[in-house]
Amino acid sequence: MRKIGALVSALSEKKAVWPEKVKIEFLEETNQGQPKVAQWRPHSEYLHQVFQEAGLSMGDFNIFYKDKDGEQMLLKPTKMGVEDFLHDHSDPPRLQVRWRPPTFSESAKQTVQARIKAFKDFIGRGEATDEAMKKAQNELEQKGGRVVPSSSVSGRSFIDHKGYGAEKWDEAVAGLEKELKLTQAESEALKIASLRREGKGAFHHEERNGNRLKTAYIAYSTVKSPAESGGDGTSKETIDIVYGKHEETMEISKSVTSLPPENCIQYGGRTFSVWPPGPPHSTTHGTDMCGLQVDLPPGWQIVDSSQEGFENIRKWVIAPYGWHTIDLVTKSGETLKAWRTRGGGIEAGKFFDLSTEVSLLGQSSFKFNSSGSYRILIEALPSASPELINHWKRYVELSAQREWSQRLSLPMAGALSAEQQLSEPSQPSP
Fold it and tell me: What is the pTM of this model?
């Protein structure tokens, strides 16, 4: 407290002479025209307001003044530093403000921040949770696909990051093209990173061998940022790229032949059957499904009665056949519906409310709760259908995100902590 009191006493004895106004010239080193001039009135406004109105920051400039001998003196580029200086000058001094290039530490920090952003944008926001992966795999299996286990991840998945000078970007792309086996169109898309501040790209390379499909997922994220000024006074830009490759293999089920042909009906190029299995020409009201909980066979799905064209299925697949049951169950959105078979006589093809007789337990699991005669109307999925391929690509992307996050020791949810991975940024490649 004694030290603080002494300091306050000393400041109170100091004569504070404030000029009415101070002329400030903004002279950028690359500007050959007239300097931008601003007037600062210390009595009524703060110094940093002058910079804010000019759309600038004090920390980005060197501030000078000329002493009585005409020599140029450097001030601290802070509000307090400049205002303390003005206390000692009764005559309005002329301040000269020049833009300064970033220091090495500032450039390094900016590079780290750019790479952190690239990593975060590349990995995503933790979508590959255990729940999401399990759901994607279940949906894939219901569409007729099966993930082929790999004995080792080594060699089929990697992630890397590099920094290049922007002027060398075309050469860098040529190297990446060979490493990732990009097509010409994919390579041209990557070259555009030199024209934009941020960029992303993702590709799927597929290789078919019998009923197996191997897919390579390739993705990248680029960030272009200014680097430390060169010796010639120019500012050189760098391009950081984070990229990875991940491979998975799927086995496509040959489910069209998994059920006996005598239990199937062909209509409109599609194959229909029932589950539990039943012959289409049987008009007996079977009760063998009562109390059962069943899963649909791989490669088959329940018929969706909300889809266009179902009226023809009702007319030519449900109504004319008995299917060893009185009612066939279909899906409509998230609910189940029942339709009378030929075993229902004059009511064949009519809709009946299911109530709670049959429950939907999952995407392909059902529970028959009553003693009524019901069966599930199912449809065979074609091998490698567009829907199956879409589910497969989604699974591969989630698997890649999960593997890359684990390799970088990044969490799968919440904010990604890449700072510790990038605390020592490498110098841009020449």
Answer: 0.47
